[in-house]
Design a protein that fits this description.
alpha+beta; D-Maltodextrin-Binding Protein, domain 2; 3 domains; 15 helices; 26 strands; globular
Length: 540
């Protein structure tokens, strides 16, 4: 009898151990509970979503705030704080039904439920003529009465954003905007709780105590001293919002660094879990996972004060007399367009919709004929002594060398190359003491249209009336009724720039998100370099 009881106890103990192992295994397999560590390239300037625009601020905001919709890893859009939404047949009215179990949280124990009024107040702040200028004014100018509210002609409550109930938000537009739903993923469209905002007395988003979160994490600590090298931010899981969406990491530790130089070193030493790096490193990348994004475009600009390069026909001949080759450096890929191949619009890769080849101007016979005619017309015996200025940070100099070799072969034109330090490069561009220069363009706001900002009127890259022509086309993009019409306008803007020969695209530049084999489900926006960690998993 005693032996039977002892044996029963053994069996019961074994069952308990198996159950514990089972549950422990499930937790490990789930990949949750990890504290992710990441480097910020600078101290965030401001965590006020309606004002923030710098890279470090945006990544923090993306992890502490939840907007109406979110962008997924494949570029598609899905509801976030909204549980559903619908768009009227004429494309002018967007109605969002919000989840009723999302809460605000902060380091000072502020708690409130997220409501539609929080979004109304946020949009009104963008167009408050008495407040600080918001960088998101132009992005949402399609909202009804946005322009007249911004200039103070109408009061803030005339803006076409209204709460029809506690959890129903309606946004009315002046005109259909094909990518309005995608624009709602910008930080400017994040909500703002009026009571907490007024509590901060003008310091909203400037410290942990004056920052509220309705997202996956809240800001617990923010320590920064410009004379100290141990600067960091600690984000903790917002437990109140686990009912609306599971958040896998327990915490995020952001280390505030000066620049990106230490990212790869810190990653290889295990100090951080992932890093965005600017150059491919075969030794590190072969042992880890990485995602590659073509996020910038490199091209040649001309000093049109030069007696040679003021001629559009000369520039056209230079543009159409070389074939782009693939670089031996994996950081660069050949390209003929203004918008690089890593950019998506409404979940579609732009370069899949508009091929590079459609923008290729190569025609060496036509180029040579035009070159010879222009030399003769201007009484130029030859063109000599010109150089291409290249910053030493550019690792694809062989691409430029190949271009000058083709110019020499196809046009009988010799052009030198000078690789200079960053300081000298910037000085030459600012003073205009260059002949031809290689420049990098990117998108400051993370949109495809942002690449055209370099070619607007008044920009030093532009000569003649090209800037006004580009601006005219770009102004129509935001009013495009559908993606097809928008793509036509994007293509027209690219062609306008390329045909003017003020900028000759050479290649696209890659950036990389590198992370360990144990990490998965990071959602990265390669343009803004922001990472959404809410679904991130780490498997021991």
């Amino acid at each position: 009898m005693v032996e039977h009881r002892i044996w029963s106890c053994f069996i019961l103990a074994a069952m308990i151990i198996n159950i514990l192992v089972l549950f422990t295994g499930c937790e490990e397999d789930d990949g949750s509970g990890h504290t992710f560590k990441y480097n910020l390239s600078s101290n965030p300037q401001n965590l006020d979503p309606q004002l923030a625009s710098d890279e470090s601020s945006i990544i923090v905001i993306k992890n502490i705030m939840k907007g109406l919709v979110k962008k997924n890893s494949d570029g598609s859009i899905s509801p976030d704080a909204a549980k559903d939404y619908n768009i009227s047949d004429d494309g002018l009215v967007y109605t969002f039904e919000l989840k009723d179990n999302i809460y605000w949280e902060s380091a000072v124990n502020f708690e409130a439920k997220l409501t539609a009024d929080d979004f109304v107040f946020a949009f009104q702040r963008i167009y408050d003529s008495n407040a600080l200028f918001s960088p998101y004014i132009d992005d949402f100018m399609c909202i009804k009465n946005a322009g007249v509210v911004a200039n103070g002609t109408l009061p803030k409550d005339a803006l076409g954003v209204t709460a029809t109930s506690d959890f129903t938000l309606q946004i009315e537009l002046e005109y259909p905007c094909f990518d309005f739903i995608e624009k709602l993923t910008l930080t400017g469209a994040m909500p703002c709780n009026k009571a907490f905002f007024e509590f901060t007395k003008g310091r909203y988003g400037l410290s942990a105590d004056t920052t509220a979160s309705n997202g996956a994490f809240y800001l617990k600590e923010w320590n920064y001293d410009p004379y100290w090298d141990n600067n960091y931010m600690i984000l903790r899981r917002n437990k109140s919002n686990l009912q609306s969406e599971n958040t896998y990491p327990y915490s995020l530790n952001f280390f505030i660094k000066n620049g990106t130089d230490m990212n790869l070193t810190d990653f290889t030493e295990g100090d951080i879990d992932c890093a965005i790096v600017l150059s491919y490193d075969a030794k590190v990348f072969s042992k880890n996972r990485y995602d590659c994004y073509a996020t910038k475009t490199y091209g040649l600009i001309f000093n049109t004060n030069s007696k040679y390069l003021a001629s559009k026909k000369i520039r056209e001949a230079l543009s159409s007399s070389f074939v782009r080759i693939e670089s031996q450096n994996t950081d660069y890929i050949s390209g003929c367009g203004i918008i690089p191949s890593g950019i998506s619009i409404m979940g579609r890769r732009y370069r899949e919709l508009v091929s590079d080849e459609s923008l290729n101007t190569y025609d060496k016979d036509k180029a040579f004929t035009s070159w010879e005619q222009e030399l003769k017309f201007n009484n130029f015996v030859s063109i000599d002594g010109l150089k291409i200025t290249v910053p030493e940070s550019f690792g694809g100099v062989e691409l430029i060398s190949n271009i000058t070799e083709q110019w020499q072969e196809n046009l009988e034109f010799y052009c030198g190359i000078e690789v200079v330090s960053e300081n000298e490069y910037n000085l030459k561009l600012s003073e205009g003491t260059f002949d031809i220069a290689l420049v990098e363009i990117n998108s400051a706001d993370g949109t495809a249209s942002g690449f055209f900002d370099y070619f607007m009127p008044g920009n030093s890259l532009i000569s003649g009336n090209t800037g006004y022509a580009v601006a005219g086309v770009v102004s129509q993009i935001s009013k495009a009724e559908n993606l097809g019409k928008a793509i036509e306008l994007y293509t027209e803007a690219e062609q306008t720039i390329i045909e003017s020969s003020v900028f000759i695209p050479v290649c696209y530049g890659n950036e990389y998100l590198v992370y360990s084999e144990k990490t998965s489900d990071l959602i990265c926006n390669p343009i803004t370099r922001s990472i959404d960690f809410r679904d991130a998993k780490y498997f021991e």
